[in-house]
Inverse folding.
């Protein structure tokens, strides 16, 4: 089943899988549970709105899936904040909200250069980028830019690339 009506719409399973997979290719089953639980809760809100007809060709509307994704992303990001407390303490996760989903590596390097504690812990900038690549947050997009994984975009409030959700 397509996520939405229209020729360019993705199949629901593919859309969900892409958005719950991090940059290193790991998919989080717990995030799927969160997505579905919150999508269901959003969908049930429509029962109280009789002027909005229920879809006849799907269980969950695209809007409900989006709400579920936002919740799953926030929860996954909170898990990373807990696991990498030193990065959270240094403001790295807060800094991510100033970036685009596909961002210039220079912006991250400038931030790292201005953070003495992280420079002591990660002697070279490449050590730092290796860390967040291993965490699955981002991977190289091309020579000068990196792309953040969809699962982290909403939770860390990274600005979306294009109009895609």
């Amino acid at each position: 089943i397509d996520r939405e009506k229209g020729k360019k719409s993705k199949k629901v399973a593919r859309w969900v899988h892409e958005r719950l997979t991090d940059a290193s290719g790991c998919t989080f089953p717990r995030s799927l549970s969160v997505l579905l639980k919150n999508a269901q809760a959003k969908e049930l809100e429509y029962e109280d709105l009789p002027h909005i007809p229920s879809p006849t060709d799907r269980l969950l509307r695209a809007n409900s899936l989006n709400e579920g994704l936002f919740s799953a992303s926030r929860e996954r990001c909170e898990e990373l904040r807990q696991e990498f407390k030193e990065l959270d303490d240094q403001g790295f996760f807060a800094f991510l909200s100033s970036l685009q989903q596909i961002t210039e590596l220079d912006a991250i390097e400038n931030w790292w250069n201005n953070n003495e504690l992280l420079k002591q812990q990660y002697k070279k900038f490449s050590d730092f980028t290796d860390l967040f690549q291993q965490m699955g947050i981002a991977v190289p997009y091309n020579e000068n830019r990196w792309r953040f994984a969809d699962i982290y975009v909403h939770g860390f409030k990274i600005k979306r690339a294009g109009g895609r959700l």
Q: What stands out?
A: The mean pLDDT is 88. The first helix runs from residue 12 to 19.
